[in-house]
Structure formats: structure tokens, C-alpha cells
# Entry
Amino acid sequence: MLSTEQQLLELISKARHILVTFAAQRGGDAVASALALENFLEQQGKQVSIISHNWQASDQLKFLPGIDKIQNQLPSLQKFVISLNVADSKLRDLSYDVQGDRLRIYLTPKHGSFSAADITTRSSNFLYDLIFVLDSPDLESLGGLYQNNTDFFYQTTIVNIDHGITNEHFGQINIVDFNVASTAELVLKIIKRINPQAIDQNTATCLFTGLTVASKSFKANTVTPITLGNASELIALGAEREKVVTNLYRTKTLPMLKLWGRALARIRSDSARKLVWLLLQPDDFIKSGAGEKDLPGVIDEVISTTPQAAVVILFYEQKAGQTSVLIQCLPGRNALELLKPWQPQGDQFLAKAHLADRGLLEAEQVVIEHLRQVLPENIS
# Structure
């Protein structure tokens, strides 16, 4: 029986066009890991696309090599093939026109005539014949990419790579290890086993970025000596550490910092449950010039300045009476479970829910009351 690495190598060698994807709400670990994997696969002579539904690059990650390759919509996955039997009568001319909502195709034989019996139709093979899903707990977290193309995902081999404890092992090959601090480390392990010489500076920089983001700059309790060893190895392989640190932690946009300052004016906490939450009104976005894409940066700032917080929540209104909730949890808590009554999207670390019929203060009261019921006091 082939090992996981042997099966993976065989799949890659046979693949014509590979799709690499991740949940759009995932952070730098998913993005950087996808770019590293794409770079490696292209070096193996493969055609690769990175696509994440409705994904937008955050300002902090725009320095990553190749980030402009990431697309946010799938192209057409199949062609509709019309076949004409020309054994008895050769084709002299082909033309078409469009009348209203109907396409008309005109086929003129050299002699005789064509009949309906001469024509067959079918769908072509899918554009991609192998899928890598990174840093995503399940297929549903891929959003419209999966929901609008379920047949494609059911009929195409999936390699699932993740370090999350809630991963559902949905792939034909599952490389899932929640004892590592990042998905980037799993991608590094795969590349080293297949072709370690393929780790160039761009790949090393991407992997180091993913590891740094996932480990909260090596401050998270998931960091182990192996994590530090992987980071050291990537730097030795050419990872641009100073560039990574500068872009991730020393370069903050002015609108994000303004929004963070306004959020701090309404910060609240429940120390017994290691719970911290903030509120943002529509006026805060207008006056700061910030947008929804700046919110993860606000949460990161809160986490870095309040190390005792295990759960950070951001309540925000961009339109009056329509409140959204963004929650980030440290390992050991599950963001999706905490917001379960409101059908959240995301994963165990970062999730988002909408309370469309509740104002900011009402949403705060309902959600915090719920969390106080489900989170025990003095959790470790």
C-alpha cells in the first residue's frame, strides 16, 4: 500500500491543471501557504490556479510574492461539446447567430444533408483534475466556490491540508495535524519530502509568513521547539524575515489605527471568562476612513495588547439596525460553536455572524448573555 506521500506524488505527477483554494475569511497562513504551494507545483511543471471565493488581499499581505495571482471567482469549469458525424457527408461551412436568448448554429454539408441522428452532445472534463484545500475546516467554508460547484468537488480528487482541530477530513487525502502551529508547516513538510531543492526564496518567504501569522509572531501557546526549528530553517533557506515582520507588524494603515482608537473607546471585558469585546458604529467607519477589511487588524491589535484575552469580539454596524459580529478565539475555544445560534461563517479561530434585525447595543446584550452561559468562568 502506498504511503500518503507516495499517493500525493502520484496525484501531482498525473495532474494536468491543479486548483489551490482556501476559505476567503482565512488569514495570512492560508494565503501564504497557498502561494508557497502554487510556486512549488509550478516548479514541478504543473499548471496551477489559486482561487478563493470573494477574496480580497489585505494591505498587510500585499508584499507576498505572487499575491496578484490569486483570483476570487472560478472560470467556467466545463465546455459543452457538440459532435457531428461527418463520415457520410463532409462539412462545407459552419456559421452561427444569436437571436434573443437562442444561439443558432448552421451546418452546411458538401453534399446530401445532416440529420439530428448525426449530432451528439456532452460536457467536457472539468478544467481542474486535482484540488488542494488549505487551512479550511470543511468544504462549506469555501463559500460560493463550493456551493455553486458541488458536482465538481464531489467528482474531483481533493487533498485536504490543515492544522485545525475541527477539520472534517473531507479529502481523499487528508494531511491534518493539530499538533503543529500552522498549515504552512505542513506545506513545508510536503515540499521537503517531495523535492526539498525546490524551496526558493519566494517559497521560503511565503511559508515563513504563514508560520508567523498563525503563531502570533511565535507568542501563541501552540508554538513548540519544532515550530521554532521550522522558522529557523526557512530563514536559512532565504525567507526575508525583516520584510515579513515589517509588513505584518510595523506597517499599520492610518485608517485602521484610527478605527482601533475609536473601538478602544468602547472596550468591555469579562475577566472571569477571558472575554473582551468592542463596539463600532457607522460613524466610526466614516470618520476613520476604514472599511470592513480593516477589522481583523483591529482584533489583532486588541489581542497583542491584552494577552489575557482568550476570546475577542467585535460588534459593528455599517448600517443602522444591522449588526455584524466578528469573533476570534485562541486555541481551545471554537468561534463557530460560540456563535452557533446565529449561523456563523468561518472556522474555529475566526467566525462572523449577522444579526440583521438588531441594533448594536441590543446585539451586544444578546450575544454576550449567550457567551456568559456557554463559557465557564476561570477557563484556563
